[in-house]
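Exercise 7b. Backbone tokens:
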């Protein structure tokens, strides 16, 4: 019963935030609350959160000729309930994917830019791999590799940069602040959003920063700072 009450609260947070977004004319495609997960876990997948990029933010863009650009966000989140109120890693799975898509008014050609913020699955790799990281990709599984036009760009695995964990509330608001500042200004005037944001910053970002700080102050804690920053020596 305790876990079910917790899951009900988290589901309400998600649906409340999606309702706030709808009042800003931001829609989404589908949502699944992952009822198949074991009782001690909760999570969700959300697809096709879409909004237009404001023209005022289209700076340093190449090639020229873009005025109609949109952001599409998909999320996949899982968390172990018992870790949520600890200063520990709150997620067992996190994948926050953003696709930026625009049609060039001069050529009619569609261009793409993608990036994701996700949680490393723990598999061994040759390169340094922060637990939560940001990585850019060009062809974000839009087309088969052999059909995607890379132009004069070179695509390969670039360094995975450390990044704060971001789920629906923290992630979408962060992306809005960059690509749709007018909607973000309205968002932060919403008291319900502010309360949600503060709560999720406390549960997600505070443990992350606390883990990094612990490398120097040596307080005992479960979350190994070298998982978040493997560059630490």
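Sequence design result:
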């Amino acid at each position: 019963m305790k876990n079910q009450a917790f899951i009900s609260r988290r589901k309400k947070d998600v649906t409340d935030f999606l309702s706030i977004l709808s009042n800003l004319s931001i829609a989404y495609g589908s949502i699944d609350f992952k009822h198949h997960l074991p009782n001690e876990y909760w999570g969700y997948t959300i697809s096709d959160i879409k909004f237009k990029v404001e023209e005022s933010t289209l700076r340093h863009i190449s090639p020229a000729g873009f005025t109609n650009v949109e952001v599409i966000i998909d999320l996949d989140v899982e968390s172990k309930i018992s870790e949520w109120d600890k200063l520990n890693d709150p997620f067992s799975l996190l994948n926050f994917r953003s696709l930026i898509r625009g049609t060039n008014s001069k050529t009619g050609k569609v261009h793409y830019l993608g990036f994701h913020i996700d949680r490393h699955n723990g598999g061994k790799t040759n390169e340094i791999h922060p637990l939560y990281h940001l990585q850019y990709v060009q062809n974000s599984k839009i087309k088969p590799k052999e059909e995607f036009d890379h132009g004069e760009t070179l695509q390969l695995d670039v360094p995975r940069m450390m990044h704060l964990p971001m789920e629906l509330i923290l992630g979408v608001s962060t992306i809005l602040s960059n690509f749709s500042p007018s909607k973000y200004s309205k968002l932060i005037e919403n008291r319900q959003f502010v309360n949600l944001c503060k709560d999720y910053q406390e549960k997600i970002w505070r443990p992350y920063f606390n883990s990094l700080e612990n490398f120097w102050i040596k307080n005992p804690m479960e979350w190994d700072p070298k998982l978040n920053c493997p560059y630490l020596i």
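Instructor comment: The chain has a mean pLDDT of 90. The chain has five helices and seven strands.
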